[in-house]
Description:
This protein is 6% helix and 46% strand. The protein has two helices and 13 strands. 10% of the residues are buried.
Amino acid sequence: MRSLVITVLAVSFVLLPLGAQAQVAPPIDSAPPFAKARRLSDSDLAKKREGAFFIGIPDISSDPVAGQGFGVRGAIFFNGQRSDPLFAYTPYRAKLKIGAFAATSAARELAVQIDVPYVFRTRWRVKLDVKVADNPANLYFGLRESTLEPLTLPSGAATYATYRAFDAARKTLRPGDTGEAALLTDALSNRFGEQELMLNLKADYALGSVGRWRVLLG
């Protein structure tokens, strides 16, 4: 089975003014004590921009099972200003990540992630993950070592050395057995639908005088 995935150039937009990059970061001692173990390196801090910005990339794919798929993956970063005492101690003050995808096979997916380090300038970091997905075209070929054997259909003993031959056979009309329709196919014999609803809430708490250790709850 062949698949084709095309990735298109990522795009970045500045939503708020970046400000003067030459500004001096606030003194180390101005940060809360529990954040001091997480200070960015001088080189990373010099490159970190102020304000908020968006990055995104199209998600385009094509394969024999899912069909043609189109979507987008992106994130909005809220960095704050260099005058913020935590500017030098966090990769960002908040991040909102979004992914949306749809395919011609009726597969759908929407994922959202929120990450807020030192929320409300406390020792807590909060992460929220939400995902809703529906894929009616997943493939199933059996369990364990039987999946290594030649492909077969439930209606007969014939075997197929390639997926192309198997795919053609499962779409071929055949007479129905007792209790079945007069004519039918095995087109859906190896397909199953999967629906997913996921909600993860996680938080970690900085321990100690400089926050070097964390306890994770979820």
